[in-house]
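Question (not urgent): is this output format expected?
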Amino acid sequence: MTRFDHRKYKPAARVTDFNRMWPEREITRAPIWVSEDLRDGNQALLEPMSVEQKKKMWHLLVKIGIKEIMVGFPSASQPDYEFVRWLIDEDQIPEDVTIAALTQARDHLIDKTFESLDGVPKAIIHLYNSTSTVQRERVFELSQEGIVNIAVGGAERVKANAQARPETHWRLEYSPESFSTTEVEFSVRICEAVMDVWQPTPDDRMILNLPNTVEEIGPHHHADQIEYFCQHIKNRESVIISVHTHNDRGGALAAAELAMLAGAERVEGTLLGNGERTGNMDIVVLAMNLYSMGVDPELDLSNPDEIIKVVHECTGIPLHPRHPWVGELVYTAFSGSHQDAIRKSLRKQGDDEPWQVAYLAIDPRDIGRDYQAVIRVNSQSGKGGMAFLLERDYGINLPRWMMLALAPHVQAASEQVNGELGAPEIRAQLFEHFDRQSPLALVDYDVRRAGEGQRASITLAENEQQFTLEGQGNGPLSAFVNAWNERTGNSIAIADYTEQAVSAGSDANAIAFVQLKSGSVRVPAVAEDADTLSASIKAIVSAINLSREADETGQRGGLTALAS
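Got this back:
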């Protein structure tokens, strides 16, 4: 057997003998959110949070709207104990927020947990013990009966402590740890044994938390386990079913989402997925999944950058730029086809209609991201990206033939810097390659009516010599072209033309694009000036200079290719 040999593993057993209904359901409301950042997330850190960092994290959790917050192991950790006392003594717990404290089913730990919570108006006591086959047989060396006795003994100790402190409203939670690798029938049995001690009612429900402690099964298997449990647990109306999924197989989010379909009402997780091994279920991502489906997540995630900042400051863990929904590059498109689709979709998106923009699952503005970073240009980008940036930042609408002409230059520039080009660099490429105001240069012009057309007098300069052209046409541009042809004996024509006002990027107020045709060659050009007519005439001058330049350098064939 080689070291990397799949035969040493076996697939998990499937849950059978129940009525599978979850595949036909839809999620229509948010779960009860429970933050494990200060417990599961904290114990997974190389350097656990200080009390001050815990305070910072606490304020963030409260701000975004999480109503149940696990505060740690106050019975086993002095920083956790001090933090819990700060919460209570300094009156830091809002009325609509409930803290939870975790304890093993051991008498002295249960007692100290209650002592740490002295004076709290309300709290959740979360009791747990390990129940899986491997834990029973290889760690505790106990039978199922022995494991049940541990749970029942812990439940009785919790009940006695709660009854001794009637001034606090105690809510009780039990977890059969490693539920996902425990025989589901035994999970039901041990949870019912705890229920027999705590005697929950529909008006005072207890929480049964079913942890996917080490993810060893697919999310669909996990959903089957949850639904089986929900269908077989007694007095279902007296319990809240909660899940706590880990990400060992990369399925924590899917497992939690499918568990909700299967009957889970409460979800434990962490902000941005920090947690033991590969992490916990990511509350931000699951909440955004609901949001994108039109379901109110009941959390305020409108400022994810603040969440990212605080989590990084408290945990030291940076966020991956491709992290779902909130990563730096999530709403950024470098692909040319993606950019083109986004640009066109945004133009058609109405303010009063459901969101329908290609490649953007939600409007980035909903979570504080504007369109400034949606489209970014590198060597993998196409025409749409550079056109979007020029339009967004400078109000320049490139005609399609200019997009085709400019794209190779932008790609080459991006390859040269081996990175990204911004709007200023793209604009510079446009004018570097398609604006030539020498050697031929516009000096002055005059346009007047002449019958049904217009007559133009254009003064040009070349090699320090000025000369004036007189021509007539349907408009001033055709009059200029006619005059040029008459003087030079050429036969140029305007194949396409567009002009527009601009409001940013230079002292100019107008920009013009012209595609000049000379035989089979089309020459794209651009110019800008104070008004559209001046810019248009200068664009023709630019095209003439570019055509001559191509003749002199032997690159005239390239101009033909640009027009294809």
